[in-house]
Design brief:
This is RidA family protein. By secondary structure, the protein is an alpha+beta fold. Helix content is 25%, strand content 35%. Helix 1 runs parallel beside helix 2.
């Protein structure tokens, strides 16, 4: 069974299938901020969606991070490293890409495992 949550015309924010959770690309809460704050608010949104979907950041399987400019790699990683629990880093790719809006500096897509309930 496929479950779609917060579905609109173009996409669903969360899709669940066979115990795997897929989040649509997440961006910051305020694109006027610098890379540090954009990264933090983006990860806050990821965490909230994972919890809503029945998962958490310790159950992330894979992430793809898109940076507008690779010069922001170190600053983004400083926030990322503080956010990901030690020993629970997912498989990850980080690439540069054009953003949907000029002011966006970072975006992430996430695949996670659902937390098993007994």
């Amino acid at each position: 069974m496929i479950e779609r949550i917060h579905t609109k015309e173009r996409m669903s924010r969360i899709v669940k299938h066979n115990g795997t959770i897929y989040l649509c690309g997440q961006v910051c809460a305020d694109a006027t901020k610098d890379i540090t704050e954009q990264t933090q608010t983006m990860l806050d949104k990821v965490e909230a969606l994972l919890l809503e979907a029945g998962s958490d950041k310790e159950h992330m399987l894979s992430t793809t991070i898109y940076l507008k400019d690779m010069q922001d790699f170190q600053a983004m990683n400083a926030v990322w490293d503080a956010w990901v629990p030690a020993g629970f880093a997912p498989a990850r790719a980080c690439v540069t890409g054009d953003m949907a809006r000029e002011a966006l500096l970072v975006e992430i897509s996430v695949i996670a495992a659902e937390i098993e309930t007994k």
